[in-house]
Write a structure and sequence with these properties.
- 42% of the residues lie in helices and 16% in strands.
- The relative contact order is 0.16.
- The protein contains 15 helices and 14 strands.
- The structure holds 4'-deoxy-4'-aminopyridoxal-5'-phosphate.
- 4'-deoxy-4'-aminopyridoxal-5'-phosphate binds next to helix 5.
């Protein structure tokens, strides 16, 4: 008898069925019926506080970005209907690349249709089957998928551990092919911040290029919002910085910025760039408007930091277990999956939406309630969320 297409999912199905039996709603099918603002949306007919987005600066609701999108859609239409290599570049693509290169003070920028594709497209353009990639063990799926697409040998190093990275890099000193180190700025699940300045020292000592994904740190950290590398004063030593428009800029798309002049070669070697439709004009216009706001409003970053500190301090004060890093991603670690499911449902019923993250998608195989804070949250909204967390934790007997 032949094997069915879905037979391989038997154990996934068993886990999913048992999750659904223990949860009054599907945690992976939450419908935000309508956003009312950046911080409040209608879920299950109720006004709900949104603490489960990546909308760090609240710019998905920016008036300037919305106006730019509408105006551009009216004058230029809503799509490009093809890839830039095959079907042509719009002037707006070039304008966005110039704006990004200027923002990051780099010679070149390349934009992709999503942040996921930015990682796939950059990694697979830079390394191939003869090469080695050093990946932080907690890397985002798009980095692992980029590695697969490239065919390069993957050597994982312990999360945020420069000594472990250096040991592994040193062992491959005689490797015949190229090598590339990849890390992130802020890690998306835990909010941990990478020691990029230490990775830079390693890259220099061993002469191995470094690529950093600042998806969650762009617009969030640094005086000019250029992320962890800006804070740690090591931007110029990072060969490729990758990121996304879908978080602090509130739209969709991704980018890679670099001073390497081979960028046009990368465009020709990057399947996720070449074989997919390019960003539509109204999204580019909204992204350009949001980029102006991101760079021109340092007050948003200050507010975001203050809000992150308030939420972090609030969780500590009600005895919850979180990372020691204060960043806009704050995850509460729980002991087991049933407890996490009950906690998450109770939060939603109390009008607070956060992300339920379950093993194996989480570091250390422990469930997380992943929260993200925004510049747009008021102190009162944060305090309300903390109170809901505190109340439920007490009822469930959860302690740090
Ligand atoms: N990199 C990281 C670290 C991410 O967390 C994400 C998305 N969560 C991506 C890349 C992909 O970005 P996008 O969703 O914009 O495709």
């Amino acid at each position: 008898m032949s094997v069915g297409l879905f037979d391989k999912y038997a154990s996934l199905k068993a886990n999913y069925d048992s999750l659904m039996a223990s949860s009054p709603r599907n945690p992976f099918g939450v419908v935000i019926e309508r956003p009312l603002s950046a911080t409040v949306g209608i879920i299950e007919g109720r006004e709900t506080l949104l603490f489960g987005t990546n909308n760090y600066l609240g710019l998905s609701q920016s008036t300037d970005a919305r106006d730019a999108a509408i105006k551009t859609a009216q004058t230029m239409g809503v799509g490009t209907t093809g890839s830039r290599i095959a079907n042509g570049t719009f002037g707006l693509h070039a304008k966005l690349e110039e704006a990004l290169a200027k923002t990051f003070q780099r010679r070149h920028a390349m934009v992709f249709s999503t942040g996921y594709q930015a990682n796939l497209g950059t990694i697979s353009a830079l390394v191939n089957k003869d090469d080695i990639l050093f990946l932080d063990a907690d890397s985002h799926a798009s980095i692992y998928d980029g590695a697969r697409l490239s065919g390069a040998q993957v050597i994982r190093f312990r999360h945020n551990d420069p000594a472990d990275l250096e040991k592994r890099v040193a062992r491959t000193a005689n490797h015949k092919g190229a090598r590339l180190i990849v890390a992130e700025g802020i890690y998306s699940m835990t909010g941990n911040i990478a020691p990029l300045n230490e990775f830079v020292e390693i890259k220099k000592r061993h002469n191995v290029p470094l690529m950093v994904d600042e998806a969650h740190s762009f617009g969030v950290l640094g005086t000019n919002g250029r992320g962890v590398a800006e804070v740690q004063n090591c931007e110029k030593d990072i060969d490729f910085i990758v990121g996304t428009f879908s978080k602090s800029l509130g739209t969709v798309g991704g980018y890679c910025v670099t001073d390497h002049d081979e960028i046009d070669l990368m465009r020709l070697c990057s399947r996720p760039y070449m074989f997919t439709a390019s960003l539509p004009p109204e999204i580019i216009a909204a992204t350009l408007a949001a980029l102006d706001e991101l760079t021109g409003r340092p007050d948003l970053r200050q507010k975001l930091q203050d809000n992150a500190a308030r939420l972090h301090q609030g969780f500590k004060s009600v005895g919850l277990n979180t990372s020691n890093f204060i960043s806009p991603v704050i995850a509460v670690t729980l002991e087991n999956i049933p407890q996490a499911i009950t906690f998450w449902n109770a939060l939603l019923e109390a009008g607070v939406y956060v992300n339920l993250s379950l093993p194996p998608a989480t570091p250390d195989n422990r469930p997380l309630l992943r929260c993200s804070v925004m510049a747009a949250h008021s102190a009162e909204e944060i305090d309300r969320a903390v109170a809901a967390f505190g109340h439920i934790a007490k009822e469930l007997g959860v302690t740090a």
